[in-house]
């Protein structure tokens, strides 16, 4: 009994550390979007250029996600989480002390390359330590790191940027990621797994060969991430410039929406555990995401105060699928391929996250927010028929 209790405590401790490490990385990755109001109103950059600066961490992540996944498959989670967090902190510190916006962009790109480490490693850590009937719930909890990271960034970074400038604002993710590096180096334990030499041949085989299952999951996730990243990137500046909110009030609203989004991910994970399925709930979420974005476009075009409530609902719905797809991929590929498969999943999503902000920033500049929100609604509609049927789960 005592041994079981210790094992249970260790599992949940690994979840907490995985959550904190990924949250810290997301304060850096997504926090760059909260520099947009300062870049736009104080430094004179248009929304397209400001969106490009905010996307630099995502572009950096695209370069290294699969490589970090390979290192996780070969070396383990502790090494990747601690080294990656330390390098992210160093890049954020370098960006904070840079005197050129171009150099800031370079270090944001390099920090994104380092921050990619947390995605595959923390997901592997959670899946490896928990049994199948709990993985949806705990992966949902782990996936709250992204909206919680956005929430903390929205609360702190815009106020620092407006009051003290971009450099001081970037010190916040530097400190958070530095603490995460120390915690991971001291406390992370790699989950138990069989030696590679003893694994069955089918567990070592390339899961991408002979099946379109993983490719379809990646494609669905790419389509569903477009409305998510547009809502995250432009809600703050929309509230400030279009609705006349103060930076503090807008930051609090974004934080509130992201906390609700975190709870939505947990609920979606628990739902998938009860069903014993990961992919079927994604179909429902895709339809709900399309409906919420169409409604946001309509209420914004009508200048209705309901648009604020719809924005909050869209912030919750559009993030709910991520944990389900992540868990499905980890279970399908197993411990010898999941690092690379999760890296591929995040690469495709983050490449989209990097491309979407400048494109939608330009679209907003020409046609306005309602048209941009309506265009976003088309992506989950396309995703709906692409969602595959759940395969038998590999425990």
UniProtKB/TrEMBL annotation:
SUPFAM superfamilies: MFS general substrate transporter. The keyword Flavoprotein does not apply. The chain crosses the membrane at residues 12-39, 51-72, 79-110, 168-189, 213-239, 245-263, 284-302, 359-387. Residues 10-395 form the Major facilitator superfamily (MFS) profile domain. GO terms for cellular component: plasma membrane. It holds the Pfam family MFS_1. This is MFS transporter. It comes from Mycolicibacterium aromaticivorans JS19b1 = JCM 16368.
């Amino acid at each position: 009994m005592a041994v079981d209790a210790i094992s249970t405590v260790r599992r949940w401790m690994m979840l907490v550390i995985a959550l904190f490490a990924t949250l810290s990385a997301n304060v850096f990755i997504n926090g760059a979007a909260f520099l947009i109001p300062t870049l736009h109103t104080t430094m004179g950059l248009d929304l397209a250029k400001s969106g490009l600066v905010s996307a630099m961490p995502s572009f950096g992540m695209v370069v290294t996600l699969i490589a970090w996944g390979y290192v996780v498959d070969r070396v383990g989670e502790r090494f990747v989480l601690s080294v990656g967090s330390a390098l992210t902190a160093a890049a954020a510190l370098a960006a904070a002390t840079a005197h050129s916006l171009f150099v800031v962009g370079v270090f944001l790109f390099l920090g994104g390359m380092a921050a990619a480490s947390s995605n595959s490693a923390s997901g592997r850590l959670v899946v490896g330590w928990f049994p199948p009937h709990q993985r949806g719930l705990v992966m949902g909890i782990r996936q709250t790191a992204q909206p919680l990271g956005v929430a903390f960034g929205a609360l702190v970074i815009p106020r620092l940027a407006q009051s003290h400038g971009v450099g001081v604002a970037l010190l916040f993710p530097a400190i958070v990621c530095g603490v995460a590096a120390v915690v991971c180096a001291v406390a992370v334990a790699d989950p138990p797994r069989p030696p590679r030499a003893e694994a069955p041949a089918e567990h070592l085989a390339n899961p991408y060969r002979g099946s379109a299952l993983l490719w379809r999951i990646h494609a669905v996730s790419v389509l569903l991430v477009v409305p998510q990243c547009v809502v995250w990137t432009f809600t703050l500046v929309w509230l400030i410039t279009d609705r006349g909110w103060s930076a503090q009030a807008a930051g609090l609203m974004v934080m509130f929406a992201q906390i609700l989004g975190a709870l939505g991910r947990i609920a979606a994970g628990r739902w998938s555990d009860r069903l014993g399925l990961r992919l079927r709930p994604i179909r429902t979420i895709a339809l709900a995401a399309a409906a919420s974005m169409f409604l946001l476009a309509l209420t914004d075009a009508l200048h209705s105060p309901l648009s604020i409530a719809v924005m909050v609902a869209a912030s919750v719905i559009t993030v709910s699928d991520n944990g389900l797809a992540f868990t499905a991929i980890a279970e399908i590929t197993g411990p010898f391929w999941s690092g690379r498969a999760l890296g591929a999943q995040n690469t495709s999503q983050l490449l989209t996250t990097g491309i979407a902000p400048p494109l939608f920033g330009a679209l907003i500049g020409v046609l306005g927010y309602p048209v941009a929100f309506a265009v976003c609604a088309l992506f989950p509609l396309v995703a709906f028929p692409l969602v595959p049927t759940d395969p038998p789960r590999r425990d």
